[in-house]
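Side project, low priority. Logging it here so it doesn't get lost.
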Amino acid sequence: MTWTLTEDLDAFLGTAGPFLHARPAENTVFLTVTDTLRAAGLDMYGDLPPRFGWWRDGAGEVAAVWLRTPPWPVNVSRAPDEAVEALAALLAVEGDAAPTEVFLPRPEDEAFARAWQSHAGRRPTVRHETRLYRLAELSPPQAPPAGRSRTATAADRALLIDWTRGFLRDVGDDVPGDRAVVALVDDRLSHRGIEVWEEADGTPVAMAQLTRLVAGQARVANVYTPPAHRGRGYASVLTAAVSGRARQAGAREVVLFTDLANPTSNAIYQRIGYRPVLDRVTLAL
């Protein structure tokens, strides 16, 4: 049992697709990233090509997958320990080309950390911890702030790029090069996947992004309010608005990630109807 690696997106989806579709909420990042690559092109994030992998168990069934879209971390699915350990060994021999971060579920992170220490000579450190939530019954805020939600347009592009960088800094991510951030914003604008909250005078004060609908799921992402406008309920009402949009578009499952170090956001999302699914960890290698 070994990892099969490819840079062929169609080959990856043709083999790993049933595994991903069986648990669309848990596999939201794989589903949305591959769908975006198919729509926007394999070079949307940078010059280095994406890489994909799948692991078959003793019965020959796909039991784990991973993908790497530089400059973002390697993303790993739920996986048996032997698959996680083999992946650590595989990445460790890449030397200078090895990734700097891996994003994987708990408890798979511990198996990876042990294997990485064995093969690379050092133990990875926890960069941050996140929790995946799934929407149950949507409960919008009963006393929303003044203003309205609207779909962002190209006229908002520069502001959205700046806010996306701000979001990444706030959650402790290394802000990737301009190309990756701009590509992310442009792609979501292309499918009307960004909502902005405007105050009564038309001033934009917050944003929330939404991935494409794929395999019956959509993910709310990059919910951001600039520091000067926080504490007024914009994140709650805007997250509820985009979550409702996703449901109206036919999403059977609406999901989002939160930073476990931020009790405010975790409480907000639970109040509007989100429930925990699983925890994931970003390991710095």
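Brief comment: The first strand starts at residue 3 and ends at 6.
Revisit when time allows.
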